[in-house]
Amino acid sequence: MTYLEALFASMTRQLTQLIPPHEQENVFMVGIHTGGVWVAEQLHRRLQLPLPLGRLNIAFYRDDFTRIGLHPHVTDASYLPVEIENRHIILVDDVLYSGRTVRAAHNELFDYGRPASIKLAVLIERPGRELPIQADVVGVSLALTANQHIKLTGPDPLSLDILTFD
């Protein structure tokens, strides 16, 4: 078993405990573009959830466009194939760092409706939170420094690297 497979197995166990069997039909998993979608694809397949997987592209909800500029060409728009009103949402991302990506994802989700609940599942969490957001399901917590970054590449095969910048 590879390191990533072990993380997905751990997350699958945690999610199985988090989702009561009688609520599985109302659970809608949504991955945040791009790495979160790759992680969500793995979890969705393992959990065999009955509703199709959704994708969320938060490009228009980012709060850092004054620093990095606007992205006028969003190539992979959000795809939510079912209504989210009163559904239990499992929002999936690859890395939880500042919390700003998750905040932006919440903003976009609420444009589509009012979910019954939102649980957050992340492959990796690291220190550096700027907003009061925490994950319900975590693959691994890594104590990285500010000059270290996580790079998930995929989708097939998925690989994980930790890069250090000077």
TrEMBL record:
Residues 22-141 form the Phosphoribosyltransferase domain. It comes from the Bacteria. Pfam families: Pribosyltran. Keywords: Glycosyltransferase, Transferase. One of its GO terms (molecular function) is glycosyltransferase activity. InterPro entries: PRTase-like, PRTase_dom, PyrR_bifunctional. PANTHER family: BIFUNCTIONAL PROTEIN PYRR. This is Bifunctional pyr operon transcriptional regulator/uracil phosphoribosyltransferase.
